Amino acid sequence: MHSIPEISIIIPTLNEEKLITQTLSQFTPKLKQKYSIEIVISDGGSTDNTLNMLKPAADKIVMKEPGTIQNISMGRNAGAKAASGKLLYFFNADTIIEDTEKFFSNTTEAFKDEKNLALTCRFHVFPEEVKLSDRLFHGFYNNYVRVLNAVGMGMGRGECHMIRSEVFNIVSGYNELLAAGEDYDLYRRIKKFGAGRIKFLSNLRVYESPRRYRKFGYMSVFRDWTKNSFSVFFKNKSVSKEWEQVR
After folding, report:
1. Which pTM does this prediction carry?
2. Treating both helix axes as pointing N-terminal to C-terminal, what angle do 132-150 and 218-235 enclose, rounded to 10 degrees?
3. Domain boundaries along the sequence of the chain
4. Topology classification of domain 7-235
């Protein structure tokens, strides 16, 4: 991009050939120009066809050092280091926005309020794959996230983190020692920073693949989320030693 972007969309990838094209296709040249967006891909060592599917959508591609092990926190931080935008939007490789025009219009408007340090929104699974269990779980969990932010706890799922770059740098980004719960930990520390608030945008929604829920089930996924969140909160470390990729 020829000018300094306003928004850097940072997407960590690792063997995402099945979904990355769909994710990147929503960021059209027209949308990127209108909202001054750059796309930063941070790859953790893909061995499938992911890297060959990134162009021309990706503006920057960051590769991990050969021979090193990289978790998602490291990948996101590496992407943020390469990013130029004043606003950092972290998406996962399977994140799909319900309405891109509404999404970017509303989030950029929300960031005009200097008190908003970070934003989050509603989450659901791909509409074409939704089941009753998905509706019940996400109905509960979205309200859980909304309430935590309303009472000042700070909460946001890693599928969509939106943060002012200066705030991200002040809190030193994601904790790279955490194999899981790093998304909750970041928003907890942003809120603890105390110079503003995290705003939950209830009118916006992003979708994710149900692949993890289908493989492990909602009870197991929620149990792991809860254990890691409590461990991060009380011990500053995650219970999980690694977060298994599901492809």
Report:
1. 0.94
2. 20
3. 7-235
4. Spore Coat Polysaccharide Biosynthesis Protein SpsA; Chain A (3.90.550)
> 88, 28 in Cβ contact below 8 A?
no
Phi/psi at 13 (5° precision): -130, 150
Give residue 240's pLDDT.
65
Nearest-CA neighbor of 207 among 140, 135, 154?
A: 135
The sign of the torsion formed by the CA atoms of 198, 246, 101, 163 equals: positive
Q: Are strands 197-208 and 96-97 parallel, antiparallel or unpaired?
A: antiparallel
Sign of CA dihedral 197, 190, 155, 13: positive
Helix (H) or strand (E) holding 202: strand 197-208
| Nearest-5° Cα angle at 25, 29 to 96 | 120
Neighbours of 53 (CB within 10 A): 18
Please return the burial class of 189, using the count of CB atoms within 10 Å of its CB with bins 0-12, 13-18 and 19+: middle
Dist. CA 1–CA 14, nearest whole Å: 25
pLDDT at residue 242 above 70?
no
User: What is the signed CA dihedral for 46, 118, 81, 43, rounded to 10 degrees?
Assistant: 0
Q: Point out which residues pair with 198 in neighbouring strands.
A: 118
The answer on pLDDT for 31 being more than 50 is yes
The answer to whether the beta carbons of residues 213 and 104 sit under 8 Å apart is no
Q: Quote the CA–CA distance of 119 and 155 in Å, as a whole number.
A: 10
Q: Prior bond to 66 cis, omega within 30? A: no
Q: How far is it, in rounded angstroms, from Cα 239 to Cα 155? A: 18
**CA distance linking residue 237 with residue 181, whole number of Å:** 9
